[in-house]
Design a protein that fits this description.
- By secondary structure, this protein is of the alpha/beta class.
- It is built from 26 helices and 17 strands.
- It has a five-stranded parallel sheet with strand order 2-6-7-1-8, with helices on both faces. The chain has a four-stranded mixed sheet with strand order 15-14-13-16.
- A hairpin with a 5-residue loop joins strand 13 (684-690) and strand 14.
- Helix 12 runs parallel beside helix 14 and helix 22 (487-498) runs antiparallel to helix 23.
- The radius of gyration is 40 Å and the shape is elongated.
């Protein structure tokens, strides 16, 4: 047999044993050869675990074996599933199989004749049961006796014939049925007599020709759990009633959970543990086939695919369940798809396929069907899962929209599956592939007849994804929107949701804000408001303070705005901190681009000198703390931009539980009297004012600080060169520089 493709043929020889089953086989064989009888050993395990292979090795080890310490083993193999479709009783097939083997024991003529007589009677009763006669007693109806030879296999047709002959002289169909008598009663009586003779006679033959010759009759029952419930129980009860005699040993291969379920269904008991108790009485030694260890799987896979990279061996070893049959099946699928891909690549019909990535996708398609289904809709999910799998800490993973926990996120559905996550840590990665390139792997592994493009109501699905609060789904929807050249239309509709112009929950508005970050948020982030000269109540004491006229930006400076500044100033470093907590906020230092999808977020990790440089580039400056408070507070001396009572629905502070910055302008109800967004919470803002000789004043509070810090007169301080995920800034302009920005 070629190692390139594997059949499902069980192990027959020790040389074929690549899963170390031989140790189990020898240990179980020694128990049978040296122990007392009768004994029933259950070889238990799920589908494909190798039960048949183990029993074949045991049979091979026992066949003909005889030593000074051991009895000679006579082996009988009975595959129960082969008789599943046989119309005759499966218990009869088992008894006939045993009798056939007993005839090879050099029996005396009387015993030989007895076995032949049993066989004849069993066969005869099979024939009579299947081709028995139907008799109708016409005396009940005063018409004399009439016998119709009708086949039981077409009983309904026979009754119709009876009705025709009755010529309408019977009042009901029930009377006709009552007139029908079967030979089955007599047949069953003869069968019971036969079985009584069989049990005592079988025990005598085993004693005379096996036990007294230091022998042992071993019967292997395979594929029992593949039979229908009634048929499986027939076999079990036949063993217990007729074959369970001294000198006999039985091996039963089955999924014990399925057999227990069959027993409970058959007897209809509500009592817990009925199936387990049934097996405990029948099976004296249960052997639960241990799952393959990873080292065993690696060894087998390395031999089966020696030409493949070690990473592929590792992917299959840690990604697949420890099931020999499934391992062989997945290896065959991988081989076929690999050869198919090589031919398509050679003809220029598809991109080059990496063996490691194909191996991962084959494992996902074969073992994680729900994930594969989700990947057909959201190909970028595999990239998010890889990032999560390779991260030691959750904060090191792709940012998730905080605060949205109404439904499980896609990534959260799968991150608890340890074999999957271990497999995704193995190189290579899907990280650098586009959705189309990931689609090549999906299309290659797609089962025939399944169309990943068939979707019900795609517009509704897109909206559901965009407002889902799940970044994986949002990114997939955004990609689809871009491909359909609908970005501007969707951005406009999302903005209405974000601004509260269309009815939506806060969670939907937050999700819309994230989606806008990927779709190039159309808001004018340069917009300012003009403030006239005059006094206002300043500080916690609300003392009068005079300010000159000025203008101030309605929004904190966004990542989108700051990126333009960096393009114009190559010497200014991109915001970046070499620590794990900053990974969600760090920019790409080579490309000098902000984190994907965060164009409408306030820029953070910016030092005071860098903020000052940006303000000067746009013709403005950092506001003084007095100017900042005037714009946030208005003229009535309120404590928060919206009033005197804190409301966590109006600001992104610690109380909101969002756990990070949000798109600017999300808290529309927290607008200041002068029209400033995010004047409370979200991020602290640099001002031009000195706190002391070493530090600068911050205003506004932040997502990680309590509500008290968001009061309009509250302040914080920071070293000018500090880079924080909770500090941003906004721009102020002198009154004469009004033309630098658009007033509303």
């Amino acid at each position: 047999m070629s190692d390139a493709f594997w059949t499902d043929r069980p192990i027959l020889e020790a040389e074929e044993d690549r899963f170390d089953f031989q140790d189990y086989a020898e240990a179980l064989s020694q128990i049978v050869l040296s122990g007392s009888t009768p004994i029933t050993i259950g070889v238990f395990g799920p589908w494909g675990a190798g039960k048949t292979s183990l029993m074949r090795l045991i049979s091979k080890y026992l066949t003909g074996r005889r030593t000074a310490k051991h009895r000679r083993a006579h082996v009988i193999w009975f595959n129960a599933w082969q008789y599943e479709r046989d119309k005759g009783a499966i218990w009869r097939a088992l008894l006939l199989r045993v009798l056939e083997c007993l005839k090879d024991l050099e029996l005396s003529p009387p015993h030989q004749q007895r076995i032949e007589d049993w066989e004849t009677r069993l066969y005869a009763d099979v024939d009579r049961t299947e081709k028995g006669e139907v008799r109708v007693d016409w005396k009940k109806f005063g018409q004399g006796a009439l016998t119709l030879g009708l086949s039981l296999s077409s009983l309904s047709g026979g009754l119709l014939e009876v009705l025709k002959l009755a010529e309408g002289k019977m009042s009901t169909i029930e009377e006709v049925v009552g007139a029908v008598q079967h030979e089955e009663i007599k047949i069953h009586r003869r069968q019971l007599t036969l079985l009584e003779e069989f049990r005592s006679g079988f025990a005598e033959i085993v004693l005379q020709y096996i036990r007294k010759r230091n022998g042992l009759l071993i019967i292997f029952i395979d594929d029992l759990d593949r039979c229908l419930p009634d048929r499986a129980l027939e076999v079990l009860e036949t063993i217990k009633l007729f074959l369970d005699v001294p000198g006999c040993a039985f091996f039963l291969a089955a999924d014990h959970e399925r057999i227990e379920t069959v027993v409970e269904q058959k007897y209809g008991s509500q009592e817990e543990g009925v199936g387990e108790s049934y097996l405990e009485k029948l099976v004296q030694l249960p052997f639960y086939l241990p799952p393959l260890e990873e080292v065993q799987m690696k060894r087998f896979i390395a031999r089966a695919a020696s030409d493949l990279p070690p990473e592929v061996h590792q992917i299959f070893a840690c990604g697949l369940p420890p099931n020999p049959r499934l391992i062989k099946r997945i290896l065959n699928i991988f081989r076929l798809l690999q050869q198919l891909a090589e031919r398509r690549v050679a003809r220029g019909k598809m991109m080059t396929i990496e063996a490691t990535l194909l191996a991962k996708m084959v494992v996902i398609q074969g073992r994680y069907r729900d994930l594969y289904h989700d990947l057909l809709e959201y190909p970028n999910l595999i990239q998010d899962l890889e990032m999560r799998a390779r991260s030691d800490e959750k904060k090191d993973t792709p940012p998730l929209i905080p605060g949205l926990r109404a439904a499980p996120l896609l990534i959260e559905k799968y991150e608890s599956r340890r074999p999957l996550m271990r497999m995704l840590r193995i190189p290579e990665s899907f990280k650098m592939l586009s959705a189309m390139e990931i689609g090549s792997y999906l299309h290659l592994t797609l089962p025939t007849g399944q169309d990943q493009n068939v979707r019900l109501d795609p517009n509704q699905r897109l909206w559901s994804d965009l407002l889902s609060g799940d970044l994986t789904r949002i990114r997939a929807a955004v990609r689809e929107v871009h491909q359909g050249e609908m970005a501007a239309r969707y951005a406009k509709a999302l903005l209405k949701i974000f601004l509260g112009e269309r009815e939506a929950t806060f969670q939907q508005r937050l999700s819309a804000g994230w989606a806008l970050g990927y779709l190039n948020d159309p808001r004018d982030f340069d917009a300012t408001v003009a403030l006239p000269a005059g006094k206002f109540p300043y500080g916690e004491e609300a003392l009068p303070y005079y300010v000159l006229p000025y203008r101030i930006a309605r929004y904190p400076v966004t990542n989108q705005q700051y990126e333009a500044f960096l393009r114009a100033h190559p010497s200014v470093p991109a915001p970046y901190v070499e620590e794990a907590w900053a990974n969600a906020y760090n920019w790409d230092r080579e490309e000098r681009t902000h984190p994907p999808g965060k164009g409408n977020f306030p820029v953070v990790l910016v030092t005071w000198p860098e903020a000052k440089a940006y303000c000067e580039w746009v013709g403005g400056r950092l506001p003084t703390q007095e100017e900042w408070e005037r714009a946030a507070r208005g003229l009535d001396g309120r404590m928060y931009p919206w009033g005197n009572t804190f409301d966590m629905r109006k600001a992104n502070t610690r109380e909101s539980g969002l756990g990070g910055p949000t798109p600017v302008g999300l808290f529309i109800e927290g607008l200041s009297p002068e029209g400033l967004f995010d004047a409370a919470g979200n991020v602290w803002e640099w001002t031009s004012s000195d706190y002391n000789l070493k530090t600068k004043v911050l205003r506004g509070g932040a997502w990680s600080f309590a509500a008290e810090s968001a009061r309009v007169f509250a302040s914080e301080r920071s070293l000018p060169h500090n880079r924080s995920a909770a500090i941003g800034f906004r721009v102020a302009f002198a009154a004469e520089n009004a033309d630098k920005s658009q007033a509303e």
